[in-house]
Amino acid sequence: MEKVGIVGVGMHRFGKFPNLTLTEMGVEACVQALRDSGLDKRRIGACVVGNVGGGMVPGQKVLAELGLAGIPLINVENACASAGTALHVAWSFVASGRYEAALALGLEQMSRTIEGTIPLGGDSLELQMGMMMPGKFALVARKHMELYRTSLQQLAAVSVKNHRHGALNPLAQYRKEFTVEEVLSSPLIADPLTLLQCSPTGDGAAAVVLCSAREAARASQPIVWIEASVLTSGTYEVGPRDMTSYDQTRRAAAAAYEAAGCGPEEIDVVEVHDGFTISEIIHSEDLGFFPKGEGGPAAESGATAIGGRIPINPSGGLLARGHPIGATGLAQIAELVWQLRGQAGSRQVDGAKVGLAHCMGGLVQGLDAAACTVHILKC
């Protein structure tokens, strides 16, 4: 397989932009990524676009505005893992040798298309019984608290840390810091999860230009290599399952570590799918950064903050940077690229050379995620 590098990234700030169109945000992210790469846009051989609620062929609308209409394009929908999936497909295009350069784009405008909480999806039994995402993860949090004595303060510490990181990120949806007390006293959404422990809806876009080693010689920025790109789908089981761990994340992480020839101890900076505070705790354990049950104490101790042992979500994560569903996975990648290049400004993780991005979306019968991507990057 061909070695694949990221040579350009771009991002439209996350937030709520009712006066902009989905296409306008996507175009801005792509223009930034192409400019960042230094490549002529005519070098792009194919495009893959992740989106959930934007209707038919959102990618073609963006390419038409970019002057790239006519190249092969795939629109993908994989719930919250849509953008991570788009990157995986684009990586596959280049790694296979089919194209020398490709563009991956994730974009979403939830302020126009989604109202209220997001259901589990499809015809799941949980949805029929009225279960929504916050309720599902509230149950997960309670089970983790029961089994491992995870405390309310430890859950809140994740939110405090990510909002502190988000305050340093000019592209984040929320740039305000909060205390543990403020997090716990914010409106209750689903016990024990309060408002500031749930990721917000919003709008935004992120784009990545990736290419072969041959094409990368034309790039103007330091090359960030994709050492591993893994996509897994969820499993279906009838009967009890461990609610405090995701087999899908563990499988994706194991495959990614093997492909990259490294282990969790060699990762310098991480972006994980913190849709809720409990999510970050569980993913930090499943990805191998902490033993089971120690993710909560690690967050409370500062181990996952910038300057800690393993900085997680220096961008602010989904909780503060925001979570426009179809854009999130590529916003994670953009953050890691900036970190590995040493371009992250006041949120820079010192000496970061290897980064991991984890993105997860959808649910199968409410217990295992429907899709998960893990990417390992190295500069």
Quick synopsis:
It comes from Tectimicrobiota bacterium. This protein has about 375 residues and is an alpha/beta fold.
Radius of gyration: 19 Å
Order of helices and strands: EHEHEHEHHHHHEEEHEHEHHHHEE
CATH class of the largest domain: Alpha Beta
CATH fold description of the largest domain:
Peroxisomal Thiolase, Chain A, domain 1
Main sheet record? 9 strands, mixed
CATH second-level architecture of the largest domain: 3-Layer(aba) Sandwich
User: How many DSSP-defined strands?
Assistant: 11
The count of helical stretches stands at 14
Regions with little confidence, pLDDT below 50 for 5+ residues: none
Q: What is the strand arrangement across the widest sheet?
A: 3-2-4-7-1-8-11-10-9
Overall 3D form: globular
User: Given the helix and strand composition, which structural class is it?
Assistant: alpha/beta
> CATH H level of the largest domain: which superfamily?
Thiolase/Chalcone synthase
Termini, distance in Å? 19 Å
Query: What portion of residues belong to β-strands?
Result: 15-25%
* Percent of residues in helices: 25-40%
Taken together, the total number of domains comes to 2
Mean pLDDT: 94
